[in-house]
Design goal:
mainly alpha
Amino acid sequence: MEKQNPQKTKRPFLERMKEKWGLKSLWQVVMILIVFAATGFTVVFIRPLIFQFLGIQDASGWLKTVSYLVLVFPLYQVLLLGYGFLFGQFQFFWEKEKKLAKGILKLLRIRS
């Protein structure tokens, strides 16, 4: 007789996200994922317009990278808060933004 290898039952993705993010319901997880999707789609749509407006759409890689970090990355953060507000998840994203800001400040202090 073969010995059966008991496998851990893998919980569904949404359940794992609910636990990881400390949320109360799967509905919140879905709303947060929608906010991330809407923000990403908006940035993908707006970035070329910003680069074209600034005349850097044909620039070299380093200029685009610096421009992205200086202009588009902060815009992404603001859009996250805006969409988070529209979808009723502002507090979740506000807490994440505060953690991100603390991390960036800590990184900058170490390098200074």
